[in-house]
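On clarity, I found the account of how folds are encoded harder to follow than it need be. For illustration, here is how one protein appears when written out as sequence plus structure tokens:

:::
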Amino acid sequence: SVTVTNDAPVPVGGLVLGGMGGSVTLRAVAPLAVGGAVEVADGATLVLDSPDDANTVAGDMTIRHGGTVTHTGPQASSTVLYRVNLSVGGDLLIESGGAIDVTGRGFARGYGPGRGSGSGSSQVGPSHGGLDERAALGTCYGSVFRPLALGSPESGTLSGGGGGSVLVSVAGDLTVNGRIESNGSGGSGGSIVLEAAVLRGTGTGSIAANGVRGSSYAAGGGRIALYETEATDWSAWKGSVSAVSSETNTDTAGNGTVYRQTASDKARGGVITVAGAGVGATELPMAEDGAARTA
């Protein structure tokens, strides 16, 4: 395990992580500036923790089967400390079995604007894009068009948290045959923003910011925004996209939001989808930057 810390971007000619058996972890606290290509191989974990300054890759990037990109969490803070913030100058390929996964790496217990509260029959589940049925209107937060906020946790003492935050921009094609996930782990779904010339993927591809309960109370879905800068439709994408809530026999929560915009759409002229089994409310804050709201 290696941690890279610095006050300025760390220049690297190229990066190959893992692939020789065993496991290896590289944590970049300061953003990486890679002049060539990046490969995250089987058994390797690349932890990208710079929330505001993007990690840049001039060439192509590949996340192999068994490789993972993530950020640190859960985050015991009222603001966003960590985010996968990544800009790729070439193509980005996530193979089947590879992942960008920030599940449960959002706000920790006791933090987050949509955090659960109470206990027993008066317990309120966590919200984000979707609202727990026991929560007050206005509890939802984040942006529909550029969601950057973390998911919020349940109340209580269980470990886990809301989903984390993913912001990925790709100059070329983004192919997801594996997973990009920001699900809750006893919390509401987090945030995912993806921008690429074309979004591609087979039926094994999954993009998800789902609420996942840790106790007997529901958790709201998160928020996802997808942008294609060259393609005018979504025909190259065969995978699944979801920002749904978790449901229980005693509590319900609203689904989150999925926004899709192609190159032929006007700014904010794409399609917002709210779909899933959740029967709670869904609110549509239009803030440009959902991370601006704190606990």
